[in-house]
Amino acid sequence: MAGRDYVLQEQIGHLLRRAHQRATQIFLETFEDAGLTPTQWAALAMLAEEGSASQNALGRMTAMDPATIQGVIRRLEERGLITREPDPDDKRRTKLCLSDDGKTLVRDATELGARVTERTLEPLDAGERKRFLEMLKRLV
User: Is residue 90 included in any domain, yes or no?
Assistant: First the structure.
């Protein structure tokens, strides 16, 4: 019978999906009071790091497709966490920036982001964590 040697629970896609589910659940529990999704937090954290970005650039930096980043930006704008400013280099484009409320939220929630990583990697010792993150970076 074909496929006898194929064990789903040992396949990379399955294991990565399960690890992602675990990390997402930990994120949602940790960020519950902040009311942010993982993609919203990624956009806010990247804007905090970069200062400003076009919607397209932000989507590329956070690995979100155009439809996803558009929805994320819309929801963050509705919450007053980001603003749009004219791009001085291209009058056809706007740049996204954190609002004062967005800056405050990122400052207050950055520790939560670190806690998500800590809890997600909890089963690993310090050396394993470092090696695991290095290997994941090589895969992406």
Answer: yes
- Tell me what pLDDT residue 2 has: 60
| Three state DSSP letters for 36-66 | CCHHHHHHHHHHHHHCCECHHHHHHHCCCCH
The total of other beta-carbon atoms located within 10 Å of residue 38's CB is 17
Per-residue pLDDT of 66-109, as tens digits, reads 999 999 999 999 999 999 998 888 888 899 999 999 999 999 99
In a domain, 76, yes or no: yes
Helix (H, G, I), strand (E, B) or coil at 27: helix
Q: Which secondary structure element, helix H or strand E, spans residue 90, and what is its range?
A: strand 90-98
How does residue 3 score in pLDDT terms, banded at 50, 70 and 90? low
Assigned token pair, 62: 């956070």
Domains of the chain: total: 1
Q: Burial of 30 by CB count in 10 Å (0-12 exposed, 13-18 middle, 19+ buried)?
A: buried
Instruction: Give the span between the Cα atoms of 8 and 42, in whole angstroms.
Output: 30
